[in-house]
Amino acid sequence: MLRPGWLLALALASVIGWVVWLMPATVALAPVNGVMLGPAPLQLSQIEGRVWAGSSRWRWQDKQGTLRWQVRWQGFRPGVLADLRGDLLLKGWLGAGSGIVLRDADAALPLASLKGIVPDVAADGVVSVRGLSLHWQKNKASVSSGLFEYTGGTASWGRESAVLPSLRGEVVQNAGVSTVDVVTAEGQRVFQGTLENTMAELRVYRAWPALLGLSQGGSPDDVIFETSRQLDYQEP
Questions:
Q1: pTM (two decimals)
Q2: What residues of the chain score a pLDDT lower than 50?
Q3: Where are the beta strands (DSSP E) in 111-188?
């Protein structure tokens, strides 16, 4: 027979679980509504459902759409399956536990929506990501899959402009190192990103300024810029 203390603990746990289950979605989204994202706030309205599953309208600058989410377990790991639609597209499963896990994420971002974030720089075309999966712990981060694409478009900075071709890149993981080479349709590499443990590196090749009409001479395979950064993550 259970002791009175255990009975009281079970009763409290049941009450807390019931209260959380019935908690309206407005409680969860209230801290997010009005948060500044770059030059404009994120606005949420018509919030419906509960914390576990619900929907909302969203608006950012002149972009708007709908957001739906549902708490879903994958194995023993809890997570949220989110679906953002409208002028911006994003869907995928995000879970926590031993680090952060993102699985099968798809996203599409029109670059025109970023106008004003970087002064005097603008671009059109769409950057998309398909099938992105990553696992990020305190001392280790890895990207196991992902396909990146850019449709091409016009970029402008100051009084200069250039028409960019389509670009694509696919994540390759080998011996714990995640690598993505961003190339043109002809296979010319313009960027390379690597992630090993929590060290991220980016290399820019001369082919990139050549596409912008800013490079003369030299080999397109020359590395003209290289940077690295240690990614910080605090365990919850």
A1: 0.78
A2: 1-2
A3: 121-123, 126-136, 141-150, 153-157, 160-164, 167-174, 177-184
